[in-house]
Backbone:
């Protein structure tokens, strides 16, 4: 089994941390884009099950994981972080695998740099979360009262489905709480929340992608128990990307954490079906 190596590079908002898995040099790599308030390592179990098929990279967006915290925090900014990693490694084109707001990040990347995206596979993903002000205010109040780690201890499991691995809730707490220098700062998490869950809207980027004659091959998966990006949001993303939509029974918002075996199999099956010209 190939384990990941951690590296850093400079992005427009500071130092970026990312994971790398080795693979055949001739194969276009996978670029993993994580859900907001997790980190690159959320893809570890999936990447290890795809061991040796392709090289792979997973970026910690700014203010997540080991990357520096500096805004802004829109999907286009996270796409710039991902592009900085591809540039640092000399990668011309990658197969994007994404989750949650990573769907918006992938769409922004495809809109801004279409020649860099070979395909897109999305899990529990959307173009816009669109929380209203009362929801944002209530969550901010609870975050400040409880602290980041305790907030995810109390609420993280609520986005997971009944068929998820028992360890998923605990792992989510660690991914969501841990930052570059210990636990993530509550002010930063609140700013990320308000920007990414409130202001962010990648539908214009999606419309730009949809107008293109040639779009990257795409497939979208959604858990039947996903409360954050339900089927309607997944269907919108699939329509914009021109891809098909599949459901994952009794899975919630984080298939890559809840059922990495099925998630890896879904990625492998999709990639196996791609025409030779984009493989």
Residues:
């Amino acid at each position: 089994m190939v384990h990941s190596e951690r590296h850093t590079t400079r992005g427009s908002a500071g130092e970026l941390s990312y994971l790398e898995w080795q693979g055949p040099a001739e194969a276009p790599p996978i670029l993993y884009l994580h859900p907001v308030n997790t980190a690159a390592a959320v893809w570890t179990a999936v990447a290890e099950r795809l061991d040796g098929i392709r090289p792979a990279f997973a970026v910690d967006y700014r203010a997540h994981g080991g990357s520096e915290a500096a805004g802004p925090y829109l999907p286009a900014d996270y796409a710039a972080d991902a592009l900085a990693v591809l540039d640092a490694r000399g990668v011309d084109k990658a197969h994007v695998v994404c989750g949650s707001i990573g769907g918006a990040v992938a769409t922004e990347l495809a809109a801004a740099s279409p020649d860099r995206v070979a395909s897109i596979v999305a899990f529990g993903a959307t173009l816009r979360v669109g929380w209203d002000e009362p929801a944002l205010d209530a969550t901010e109040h609870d975050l400040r009262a409880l602290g980041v780690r305790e907030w995810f201890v109390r609420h993280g499991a609520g986005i997971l489905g009944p068929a998820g691995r028992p360890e998923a809730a605990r792992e989510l707490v660690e991914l969501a709480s841990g930052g570059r220098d210990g636990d993530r700062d509550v002010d930063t998490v609140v700013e990320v929340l308000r920007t990414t869950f409130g202001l962010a809207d990648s539908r214009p980027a999606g419309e730009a992608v949809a107008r293109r004659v040639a779009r990257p091959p795409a497939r979208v998966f959604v858990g039947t128990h996903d409360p954050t990006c339900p089927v309607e949001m997944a269907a919108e993303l699939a329509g914009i990307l021109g891809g098909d939509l599949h459901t994952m029974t009794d899975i919630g918002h984080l298939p890559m954490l809840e059922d990495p075996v099925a998630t890896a199999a879904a990625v492998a099956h999709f990639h196996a079906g791609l025409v030779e010209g984009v493989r």
About this structure: Residues 5-278 form a domain with the Rossmann fold fold (CATH 3.40.50.1820). The radius of gyration is 17 Å.
